[in-house]
Amino acid sequence: MRATLSGRLCHPNNTEWPPYRTRSPPVGEWLPLCSAPALGYLGWQDTVRGLLLAEASHGSLQRYLEENHDTISTPIRRKWCRQVVESIAYIHGRGVIHSDLRPDNFLVHAITPKSLDLWLCDFGGSTCEKLGLDGKHLPDPGFFNPNSEWVSTTATDIFSVGSILYAILTGHWPYRAPGPF
């Protein structure tokens, strides 16, 4: 019987990185791609087949920006921008295209009360030729270049990264008026 992946967190400092997919390849096929520590990977569980992952302490980046934008310090914003770029460079270096990058797909987690880190999550629409995942999914408007072909490429993710950095720095999505997302 083929085991499927049930978790969906990733961070550039993780020791384990599993691309999430409802119909995942067997665990043995994607584990060799793993080598990244803040995934929150806790181990394999047998009661509900899959991986047991930690929960992010502060929910999605989207929600965190909506609720706390005016109080987020410049050093935290800089750190988040770096973490976004590093996490995408990490997955692209392993042949994975996320295909749905937006603030909802980054989670905010604090290991200590003042250390807010971002974890990349939700690989349900990912593309990975090595694993036979075609994703066929694109990000939301504002995070997808409307002048591009409707296909998931590294360029799709890179455009989305720029839009996420914009949201981190300004508090609103590109191509939308300031205010609630």
Give the topology, please.
Layout: E1 9-10, H1 27-30, E2 41-45, E3 50-53, H2 61-68, H3 74-92, E4 96-97, E5 106-110, E6 116-121, E7 127-128, E8 133-134, H4 154-170
Antiparallel strand pairs: 1-6, 2-3, 4-7, 5-6, 7-8
Helix pairs in contact: 3-4
Trace the largest sheet across and list its strands. Answer: 1-6-5
Distance between the termini: 43 Å
Main sheet, how many strands, which sense, barrel? 3 strands, antiparallel
What Rg, in angstroms, do the CA atoms define?
16 Å
Beta content comes to 15-25%
GO molecular function: ATP binding; protein serine/threonine kinase activity
Pfam family, one: Pkinase
InterPro entries: Kinase-like_dom_sf, Prot_kinase_dom, Tyr_kinase_AS
Subunit structure: Component of the EKC/KEOPS complex composed of at least BUD32, CGI121, GON7, KAE1 and PCC1; the whole complex dimerizes.
Short description:
The protein has 181 residues and is α+β, with helices and mostly antiparallel strands.
Polypeptide structure, described:
One of its GO terms (biological process) is mitotic DNA damage checkpoint signaling. Residues 1-181 form the Protein kinase domain. One of its GO terms (cellular component) is nucleus. This protein is an alpha+beta fold. The protein contains four helices and eight strands, in the order E-H-E-E-H-H-E-E-E-E-E-H. It has helices spanning 27-30, 61-68, 74-92, 154-170, and strands at residues 9-10, 41-45, 50-53, 96-97, 106-110, 116-121, 127-128, 133-134. The longest helix is centred in the middle third of the chain and has 19 residues, at 74-92. Mean pLDDT is 72; it is low at 1-24, 34-45 and 177-181.
